[in-house]
Amino acid sequence: MRVVVDLSRCEGYAQCAFLAPDAFRMHGEEALMYDPNPDDARRDQVLRAAAACPVQAILVDQLEGRDAPAEASPS
Amino acid sequence: MTSAENLQAFKREGRIVVVGASLAGLRAAEALRGAGFTGSLTMIGDEMGEPYDRPPLSKQVLTGWVPAENTKLPRRREIDAQWLLGVPASGLDLAGNHVRLADGREVPFDRVLISTGVRARPWFVESEAALDGVFVVRTREHAEALRRALAAGPSRVLVIGAGFTGSEIASVCREREIPVTVAELAPAPLVGALGAMIGDVAADMQRAHGVDLRCGVKVTRLEGDAQGRLRRAHFDDGSTIDTDVAVVALGGIRNTEWLQGSGLAAGVWGIACDTGCRALDLNGLITDDVFVAGDVARCPNPIYEYRLISLEHWANAVEQAEVAAHNMVSGQADRWPHLSIPLFWSIQFGVNIKSVGVPTFADEVVVTQGSVPDRRFVAAYGYRGRVTAAVSFNNAKWLDHYRQLIETAAPFPPPCPTPDQPADMKPVPVDFPGPTLLAQGATVVVTGHDPSERRVTAAHQHR
């Protein structure tokens, strides 16, 4: 699954790192590092983390189950 | 046909081409579909593969946590586009309304969005740039190649340029316990973006983490061995260091060359547009059907005296893409201006550095909260007595407060909003090494006498 965090919005509340520690980690006191491609098995965890973010900075792919959209093949 | 009927017909069956298939291009495409555009949508990109996110490349990827391949951007919706990837655009014909591709194809459009971004500035000597061990970091392939080189355990890495990318790479090297030398022409790291005061903080931070930081020096030559591998770097003070990996982090070059001759106000400084992301032509006239978004756009900001400012910021790309997309499919009375205050972040040496506003648009700076030695503080920037920007080190929760000060032209220096007021709140000169905001110079000439004849033509700079 694909994830992106808008780090210009992130204020380091660390809720995501608490709820989905495999996908989100704090680096120092308030800097967030995240895995942009966490394992699909973590989907529920990651969705919970996204929902819990106080500034709603986490975007999860809305095209469920389509890891490689066919339209993106080169032509 | 009324203009409203025209607009509905365009939304139903018009042709939109997006040139530049990265963050801004993708978000614009999604916003176009979200706004009910059902016509044909073509995405042109010079790289192969789907749009991916760049910030993780200099952080998560180089630390070895995430493979470069795994940074594809999530999708907010289907965009049902035709993708023309792996071939750059080579020209824009505004009389015939088509984009020319480097392979000779022509792609017709009714409206076009230009989001071609920037590319890495390469090392200035081609033979030295080609040495095994010399890298830049802009694309996924670049990041993957550098990740492999760092994983091989180099004896020393040389980072050329201590802007944000260079400083982040130096930070990753120290995290991986790789000896690193940083060479910067300016008196301190980050000084071009954030001024001398923050530059001194950044320099202390690098040295405290064991970076061999050398400021005020220029790398003059990269020396390879008989096998074409990098071995040594020479500085203009006569010194040398032995190194097997050099990372050239000297900023970017805007991808505007393909627009030469198009009649747009495009050049090394970006493509000028209005706050609605509509491109200007060379005469400063607003075009009807050409829009610009992202790193390549140069947009006036009323907060900063309507100066045309181009920003290589992630949030700016997303916001401009959304404004441009909205305006592409909206009538005159419904258009949006792009008026958001710039936001930027960097993660280095375990510190979250963020800025709001335009720090280069300032004459003074003052620490308003926290403690510089603790590397937990906010500094506010002011220009002629009003707040124009703020930078936080591990204090991001406060930036929204400063954004509001900037938006309301609050007086500078602002009062400290929290109990962690520094003992000495005396503003100091901001001290940038050069007039960074105004340094681009004249690049057009005006010809003709009568109002109907007067036109501007481009005077292309020698580089």
TrEMBL record, chain A:
InterPro entries assigned: Fe-S_cluster_ET
Cofactor: [3Fe-4S] cluster
Organism: Kitasatospora cathayae
Protein name per its UniProtKB record: Ferredoxin
SUPFAM superfamilies noted in UniProt: 4Fe-4S ferredoxins
Superkingdom of source: Bacteria
Keywords carried by this UniProt record: 3Fe-4S, Electron transport, Iron, Iron-sulfur, Metal-binding, Transport
Pfam family, one: Fer4_13
Gene3D superfamilies given in the database record: 3.30.70.20
UniProtKB/TrEMBL annotation, chain B:
Reductase C-terminal domain sequence ranges: 344-414
Keyword terms: FAD, Flavoprotein, Oxidoreductase
UniProt xrefs under PANTHER family: APOPTOSIS-INDUCING FACTOR 1, RIESKE DOMAIN-CONTAINING PROTEIN-RELATED
Residues spanning the membrane: none
Sequence ranges assigned to domain FAD/NAD(P)-binding in this UniProt record: 15-321
Transmembrane helix keyword on record: no
The protein's name in its UniProt record: FAD/NAD(P)-binding oxidoreductase
